[in-house]
Amino acid sequence: xxxxxxxxxxxxxxxxxxxxxxxxxxxxxxxxxxxxxxxxxxxxxxxxxxxxxxxxxxxxxxxxxxxxxxxxxxxxxxxxxxxxxxxxxxxxxxxxxxxxxxxxxxxxxxxxxxxxxxxxxxxxxxxxxxxxxxxxxxxxxxxxxxxxxxxxxxxxxxxxxxxxxxxxxxxxxxxxxxxxxxxxxxxxxxxxxxxxxxxxxxxxxxxxxxxxxxxxxxxxxxxxxxxxxxxxxxxxxxxxxxxxxxxxxxxxxxxxxxxxxxxxxxxxxxxxxxx
Length: 275
Known about the structure:
Helix content: 10-25%
Number of helices: 4
Oligomer: single chain
Radius of gyration: 19 Å
Strand content: 25-35%
Structural class: alpha+beta
Low-confidence stretches: 1-35
Order of helices and strands: EHEEHEHEHEEEEEEEEEEEEE
Shape: globular
Largest sheet: 5 strands, antiparallel
């Protein structure tokens, strides 16, 4: 497990106060040696669009956070709103989805890019479009333990047309809130145009961890309330992805959240195995 010391946190706060633009890449490494990560895996939902000039900078920051967290952070890019429309000849791939637009309308980001880190509120707002502060939110969420563990298995059926999924939600402590289980499918490494910070269009831009669909509905399935310590809930699903999606770049994301506050208790991501 990686660890975080106080010096590193102070260094990070200085970066947030004075900005990252003047910091060399090799000076932005976070040294860690005291506070160890727990079982918590953080979900970062990135509201973005391929016509958003500031979104590539946010994508770079997310990539740095993913590298540092080494599996403790799951990022999902939700293309929604006017910056995600495909009007114009440069844009070939439609990334907008019914579910993505529903999340965008419900959580109402003030601008793009905007992130939700485990859907926890910062200054009374769940979405945060101040990119340099995303790292401190991630660190804060990683420091706590989750009362939930999720085991997720995903496999292609014979013929590679459908995906079978098995999910087990294990409660390490009693949780009295009403919870829901959400399953998403994402696609990685999609090459398509992106408007860049200098207002040029990069036709070969690689879009990462793109939200494609909500497998079990926009708001998932209820797990009920008052789940006892050491209890488990298991669910089975079958899903047929779109033919146009690249099968080798598809992944499944599962998370458990509080149906009242929408805060995420735990998340997991799985590759899809071939049966």
